[in-house]
Amino acid sequence: MSVKKFKFVSPGIFISEIDNSQRDRVPGDIGPVIIGRSERGPGMRPVRMESFSDFVSVFGNPIPGGRGGDVWREGNYTAPTYAAYAAQAYLKNNNPINFVRLLGDSHIDKSATGDAGWAIAPPNIWASTCGGAYGLFLMYGERVSAGPGTTWTNTASTLAAIFYVPDANQRIVLAGPLSLDQSAYTNGLNGGATSSTSVWMQPSGPGATPATSTSPIFTVVVRDEPAATVTETINFSLDSGSSTWLREAFNTNPTLTNAVATATPTPYWLGQSYDSDIAAFIAGMTAAQADPTLPAANEIAVVATILPITGDAALGGDFSYDATGASTGWFFSQFTVAPGNPTDTSRTQIKDGEETLGAENLFKLHSLHGGSWESKNLKVSLQDIAAPSNPYELYGTFTVVLRRASDTDAAPQIVERFSRVNLNPNSPDYVARRIGDKYSTWSDTERRYIEYGQFANQSKFIRVEVSADVERGIADSSYLPMGCYGPSRFKNVHSNNLSTLDAHVSNVYPLLPNSTGNIFQPHGGPGEISCGPAALGAYTTVITMPEVALRANSADATLSDPTEAYFGLSTAVAGSSRMAQDYFDLTMILPDPSAANVPSGTTAAWQYMNLFTLEDLVATTTTTTTYTSGSFTGGTSMAALGDYTSPLTAGYDRYTVPLMGGFDGLDVMERDPFRNTLLAGQTELTSYAANSIKRAIDSCADPEVVECNLMTMPGLTDATLTGHMIDTCEARADTLAIIDLENDYIPDTESLATAANRVPNVDLAISALAARGINSSYGCAYFPWVQMRDTIGGQLLWAPPSIAALGTMASSSRKTELWFAPAGFTRGGLTEGSAGVPVIGVSARLTSKERDKLYEANINPIASFPNEGIVIFGQKTLQVVPSALDRINVRRLMIYLKKEVSRMAANVLFDQNTKVTWARFASKVNPFLSSIKSRFGLLEYRLVLDETTTTPELVDRNIVYAKIYLKPARAIEFIAIDFIITDTGASFDD
Question: How would DSSP label each residue in 624-687?
Fold first, then answer.
């Protein structure tokens, strides 16, 4: 009684409301599973989408292909994303769908060829192989005199860019005059000193600028070593506004190196270029050249060299990773050691990327899904960091904000916000509870995802990993996330670490002897890079590796209050609000999977770029605060002069960190990383592409995990994988697979076939399908490919017939019922828009004879008629044995009936096994079947559930057994009409 819910204390009138009008929950609609590539979005698991606008917001627009440009930075738009068009086709006419975006994942038992990602073998000069990853290094310094015997001082160096050369016969080198202190040398390698790897070169090129120029032009030569010929000569500058700028001068499209789909492949591509560091390098050089204290006899000169990035500890061209999600570094606490003691050996100062002690790791954030999109587009800010305000509050609070990577502090673009969370595991505002910490991993043994974690994910993008001490509640309650570890990078080459030279800048290949000594050798101090023996003059330098920018101070004219500045990561170009184009180059995954480096910390090859902490903020003026790394240890920061709450009290309670290390696991040299010619003859053990597709199918194999009634991967023709899809649908017994066939149209992403060899071949398609021996009503196929128009950009593209078929099934269900045949001029007219996407042509105009041959082979033709247009002209399944189930409309009817009746049966599960329960079940099923009959799905039906089916023996075994007899309505596929000509005197009434 509701009266029991009232609390009667003093007299009054108490009113309650009881809602008995609630309706049973209507089961959600069921749609297809679509597998394939998309622009972005969650990967390798089904995601339900209700509308095309929702799909675009999560997975991006469909890509028509054909767009080149800077593929390394902008992403691969060279090949169509057929699955995204299939999503558009279905969602235009119906909903929902489950979309599985393919990423690269390798099998746990993979062979040597089964790695995901991509790799380029390093050069081996002793075996006369070239190729590999090459770094472009810049140096400027004060040259005291010219020629052999000179000395250089005040040098500064940086890694400017990285080239990748997959062709083992090619090498990329600098050409031009040697640095003046090397002019007495002859390079014994590859015929002369005018072009070489590992030698410092002066600027060169057309109208060669002097060594003292602020806009030097260098020349690179791509050379075929076995042929001893020059493949290409490129002049480039370090001026980002120039037409010869690095990224304008060099190829930045990795797919152009692939001979499978490129007639004349380019032997290299430019990957990372560290634009901000190049700009800082040029600015430093320009300032040095303008130095009035420089002696007249001296000059500031610039030189460059190219070195292979390889060695015993790291392979610069090895990105053999599975798809990897982005993450932040560990957020760490305030320091637990006293400030002002730089000689304290109990901790390492947070400086120059070295690891810190004396602070506790608290938590880190991970993207929910694998892939690089979050790394490129999102960053994380902590703000409103506050210590406990009274003795009764043991834990401080902070706010986690997910922001667009391209925004500014003056105009933050908030994606998600989680306000006033804490580190108390017993609090409802515990950071892991508020954001979520669940994640899942794929089991190759069980062929399913296994879930871990306590708290459901409330964020659409990130999850939390907390440290063991925080999770157990034994971490100090005063701890606040005052700082965070930054991305990893190659270690600087500096004098106290010879091993780093051996680790990431090879000392094997550059140290080739010649007649006078080593061209490129450690000299002047362990690990320092120099040129030439000391007797002939040498210079030393420390090569600094690029790093992400940090906000230097709070002075910012765009902010109304300096305390609104987010210290830590800055994604903008210095002095501008534009996003730095090299941001992702700096935060991407690092090469060499053998070194666990993302973002786990320092190794022989890696170090942190930075370790930011609010405790290193210095109050330089009454209105300006500066970030100075090491100022806490030096005793000059606000926290050192007060305590960890001092910067927070001053209002500087916020900072930003990157999401870093996301990776798609795909081969960047492939236009379509899942092309069929790449899958031919492969298994999930020998090919990451085959494994990824099979895993995507298997992730949808359990009908209790994913509800669907159709399944397709547009463009996939590999017999093994399409066969696995049909087998999966048949095992589910509630899903129809739409597959594409071999020997249909061959897109230009598959091979270099001529236009004449790309056209579909009816006879070969029929014979190849017949050889497979498929006999299943849970699969269907269409022929040939169609030409469609991209509705966003207007571009024309060739598309697999499964897209048109899927869209037509959606529109047919919407116009009539799903048990009506999705074919013919009424429901299958592609020209009339039944596909959901504009279909304007076919890759082969089928003759009547060809249509007959296809239909006899259980392949549904897509025909083109002069007046009626393009139409799907068949609706057969791949069942060979003649029965009602050899037609798509009957198979889809049975899938629908089984799903709905099983839902009704679930409502009586665990009820008493009595006639009353049987009657209740029958009272639901009979009206349902009657409705189907009235809507022309059935001719007749009969439900039998009584003692003849459920015998006493079955009752004793807790079983109800019912029989449903059905006569499905058949579609008209043949119309026979006799036109009889009679004599004039005949009567039509006879």
Answer: -EEE-TTHHHHT-SHHHHS-TTHHHHTT---EEEE-B--B----TT-SSTT-HHHHTT--TTT-
Statement to judge: residues 716 and 784 lie in one domain: yes
Looking at residue 701, what is its pLDDT? 94
Q: How far apart are CA 852 and CA 858, in angstroms?
A: 10
d(CA 346, CA 593): 31
The token duo for 456 is: 């459901």
Kindly state whether residue 5 falls inside one of the protein's structural domains: no
- Determine contact, residues 601/486, Cβ cutoff 8 Å: no
Report the candidate in 38, 42, 30 with the shortest Cα–Cα distance to residue 63.
38
Token pair belonging to 942: 């009969």
Residue 684: pLDDT band (50, 70, 90) is very high
pLDDT in tens, 776-797: 999 999 999 999 999 999 999 9
Claim to verify: residue 196 and residue 281 sit in the same structural domain:
yes
Q: Is 442 a member of any domain? A: no
**For range 335-350, the mean pLDDT:** 55
* Residue 855 reports pLDDT greater than 80: yes
Q: Of 529, 544, 559, which residue sits at a domain end?
A: 544
At residue 266, the pLDDT reads: 94
Q: Beta strand pairing status for 736-739 and 710-712?
A: parallel
Give the mean pLDDT of the chain: 83
* Number of domain units in the chain: 4
**Confidence at residue 132, expressed as pLDDT on a 0 to 100 scale:** 84
Instruction: Give the pLDDT confidence score for residue 752 in this predicted structure.
Output: 82
Pairing of strands 549-550, 543-544: unpaired
- The Cα 671–Cα 678 span in angstroms is 11
Please state the rounded mean pLDDT for residues 882-899: 93
Using alpha carbons, select from 58, 80, 77, 81 the residue that is nearest to residue 68. 77
Q: 341 and 236: one domain?
A: no
Range(s) of the domain holding residue 569: 331-433+459-487+548-658
Query: Lowest-confidence range among 115-129, 708-722, 763-777?
Result: 115-129
Residue 368 and residue 343 in one domain: yes
pLDDT at position 183 over 70: no
Amino acid at 398: F
Judge contact between 735 and 890, C-beta under 8 A: no
**What CA–CA distance (Å, rounded) separates 665 from 674?**
12
* Residue 14 in domain: no
Residue 350: pLDDT over 50: no
3 state DSSP class of 274: coil
118 contacts 296 by C-beta, under 8 angstroms: no
The span from the CA of 838 to the CA of 832, in Å, is 9
- Please state the separation of Cα 332 from the chain's center in Å: 28
Tens digits of residue pLDDT in 909-951: 899 999 999 999 999 999 999 999 999 999 999 999 999 999 9
Q: How far apart are CA 855 and CA 726, in angstroms?
A: 19
Strongest mean pLDDT among 27-31, 377-381, 514-518, 621-625: 377-381
Query: What's the DSSP call for residue 479?
Result: -
User: Do residues 520 and 552 share a domain?
Assistant: no
Where is the domain boundary, 623, 658, 693?
Answer: 658
Task: Tell me if 531 is assigned to some domain.
Answer: yes
Measured distance CA(591)–CA(318) in Å, rounded: 5
Q: Are residues 240 and 214 in the same domain?
A: yes
Task: Indicate the residue type of 147.
Answer: G
Instruction: Write out the H or E segment, with its range, that includes residue 503.
Output: helix 498-504
Q: Is the pLDDT of residue 213 over 80?
A: no
* d(C-alpha 712, C-alpha 701), whole Å: 13
Report the alpha-carbon distance of residue 380 to residue 951 in Å, rounded: 65
Judging by DSSP bridges, how do beta strands 517-518 and 513-514 pair with one another? antiparallel
Same domain, 735 and 802: yes
Q: Is 553 helix (H, G, I), strand (E, B) or coil?
A: strand
- Strand-pair partners of 841: 787
HEC-encoded secondary structure of 497-551: CHHHHHHHCCCCCCCCEECCEECEEECCCCCCEEECCHHHEECEECEECCCCEEC
Q: What is the CATH number of the domain that holds 766?
A: 3.40.50.11780
Are both 615 and 698 inside the same structural domain? no
